[in-house]
Amino acid sequence: MVATQTPILEMRGAKKAFGGVQALTGADLTLYPGEIHALLGENGAGKSTLLKALAGVHKIDAGSITLNGKTFEQGSTRRAGEQGIAVIYQEPSLFPDLTLAENVFVGRQLRSGFTVNWKAMEEETNKLFQQLGVKLDGTRTARGLSIADQQIVEIAKALSTKATVIVMDEPTAALSSKEVDRLFQVARNLEAQNCAVVFVSHRLDEVFALCSRITVMRDGATVGTAPTKEMTEQSVIKLMVGREVSELYPKLEAKIGDVVLKVEGLGLAGQFEDISFEVRAGEIVGLAGLVGSGRSEIVRAVFGVDKFDKGTVTLNGKKLKPGNPSAQMVSGVALVPEDRRQQGLFMSSSIDKNSAVTMLKKLSKFFIIRQKNESKLATEWGQKLSLKYATGHDPVDRLSGGNQQKVVIAKWLATNPKLLIVDEPTRGIDVGTKAEVHRLLSTKAQDGVAILIVSSELPEVMGMADRILVMREGRMVGQFDRHAATPEKIISVATGAAPV
Predict the structure, then answer these.
(1) Pure H helices in 332-385
(2) Which residues contact 211 (CB under 8 A, 6 or more apart)?
(3) What is the mean pLDDT of the chain?
(4) Residue 413 — very low, low, confident or very high, per pLDDT cuts 50/70/90?
(5) How far apart are CA 45 and CA 124, in angstroms?
(6) What separation, in Å, do the N-terminal and C-terminal C-alpha atoms of the chain show?
(7) What is the reported pLDDT for 96?
(8) Enclosing domain of residue 53
(9) Contact 168/199 with Cβ under 8 angstroms?
(10) What span, in angstroms and rounded, lies between the C-alpha atoms of 124 and 117?
(11) Which of 125, 150, 297, 312 could form a disulfide with 271 if both were Cys (CB 3.0 to 4.6 A apart)?
(12) Are residues 228 and 373 in the same domain?
């Protein structure tokens, strides 16, 4: 990218309000052909609104957008695509009962005369999957795909449009390191083809490894744009949050007590086999491993979402019934799931109702739930987690992805669990809020809560866990104490490159 080039896209002074909330207060963005450009900011900074304006979902109230020297036609997702903009959103939105090929070409079916050419769509989809280096079949349905594979389908969909501006909103959040490497190569190929790639991520190491320029937003406005080589992680964080973030992994000393969770010989056909481990009061245990290693399946079985075939799960000496999440909740187990939209939230319900859904019995009187009790609970936890919203009556789908994650965390912390299971707790959360969530988890451990954390981010596991259990292909293949663990050791065991 040469700075003297004509910009492919320019946004100037963009403003957008939703009721009383000013989402954009003066957003600027300049993209050049042949560059990978990072767009950064805290949750609620306005990134999602800006992206949706480019995608044609929203029309800005003031300001201007030009694309290839022409005024960008706003307010239509179809026209945005026709003008050359493709957006890969943070959360996959596939049609589960359609094939992958139908999802990739939805609304743009390939035709032979008046009929849809299903074979051509399947062939083109499989070519895209081969380009991405993944083993997916365009003829299979989307139902049951992992988050990582759903994201791959979304990327294939964007590539199929031949777009000149491709926006990737947290595309690596649920990908393994190998899949991230593939995605980076695809992004660089697009860069070489003179496309402008917008890369939105909270993982600053990825930004500095991939992007040539960085734009930072705060409180709905652009607060800085510079070449990546002129910035540091600390300077970016300071622009994002308006302050120094001294410690991202604030691990507090906690007294390790008696065994709270004991898992013995746990097995589920096709998912995991012979899993045994313990988590003690005040202890944070991390589950590490590549995507698909069985980590999420294990915690779902412990919580009772999936019914295991073999083994036992014991909480404070009492065996838990398999496949009974209601009983697990009563016993004091809480699960923050990996997929917040599908498993963690009622998207059309209010923030208040989502925050209070795990506490209905305690908040009700004579089987009647008082709205003020819901609001009080939501406000309390919203303040603790720095939730950004206009009113608790707003539907949760109006929140940014990170703020939605905060609501999921809040509703489970409100139950005061004995065992807190968190699956990818900071996926899609900005740097400043990550530190707050980590401090909250560490404080809960100090209070005697046993915590089991699943994370694809090795720095998070190593920074927060007292012990790290490593998974590979459905089996537990290694264990490291906090001070003995290194990224190299964990990855080597997780990939089978080295023995324990």
Answers:
(1) 351-356, 360-363, 371-384
(2) 36, 37, 38, 199, 228
(3) 86
(4) confident
(5) 37
(6) 46
(7) 92
(8) 9-94+145-241
(9) yes
(10) 11
(11) 297
(12) no
Lowest-confidence region among 55-59, 61-65, 129-133, 185-189: 129-133
Which tens digit of pLDDT belongs to each residue from 73-121? 999 998 998 899 988 876 678 999 999 999 999 988 999 988 999 999 9
Residues 236 and 264 in one domain: no
Does 125 map to a domain? no
Two structure tokens written together for 194: 């003179």
Residue 60's pLDDT band (boundaries 50, 70, 90)? Answer: very high
Are the CB atoms for 145 and 24 separated by under 8 Å?
no
For residue 116, how far is the Cα from the chain centroid? 35
Q: What residue type is 152 in one-letter code?
A: I
> Residue 408 is part of a domain; what is its CATH number?
3.40.50.300
The answer to whether residue 135 is domain-embedded is no
DSSP conformation letters of 437-456: HHHHHHHHHHTT-EEEEE-S
pLDDT at 125: 95
Q: What is the pLDDT of residue 238?
A: 84
- Three-state secondary structure call for residue 5: coil
pLDDT digit string, tens, across residues 306-318: 999 999 999 999 9
- Rounded to whole angstroms, the Cα distance separating 416 from 271 reads 30
Are 204 and 43 contacting, i.e. CB atoms less than 8 angstroms apart?
no
- For 247-299, give the secondary structure using H, E and C: CCCCCCCCCCCCEEEEEEEEEECCCEEEEEEEEECCCEEEEEECCCCCHHHHH
Q: How many CB atoms lie within 10 A of CB 4?
A: 5
Quote the pLDDT of residue 377. 67
User: Lowest-pLDDT range, 98-107, 183-192, 397-406?
Assistant: 397-406
Residue tagged 């866990």 (tokens): 465
Lowest-pLDDT range of 194-203, 368-377, 467-476: 368-377
The stretch 42-66 carries a mean pLDDT of: 91
What is 111-133 written as a DSSP string? Answer: EETTEE-HHHHHHHHHHHHHHHT
**Radius of gyration over every alpha carbon of the chain, rounded to an integer in angstroms:** 23
The pTM score is 0.62
Domain's final residue, options 241, 274, 296: 241
Q: Report the SS3 class of residue 416.
A: coil
Q: Residue 312 corresponds to which tokens in the numbers above?
A: 């036992």
For residues 328-350, one letter each, b for 16 or more C-beta atoms within 10 angstroms of the residue's C-beta and e for the rest, the string is: bbebbbbbbbbbbbeebbebeeb
> 278 and 226 share a domain?
no
Using DSSP's 3-state secondary structure scheme, residue 25 falls into strand
Q: How far is CA 401 from CA 207, 308, 404, 430, 464, in A?
A: 19, 31, 5, 10, 23
pLDDT band at 444 (very low <50, low <70, confident <90, very high): very high
Closest alpha carbon to 357 in 391, 329, 398, 385: 329
Q: Which of 253, 218, 211 is nearest to 233 (CA)?
A: 211
Report helix, strand or coil for 368. strand
Only one residue has tokens 């992994």, namely 249
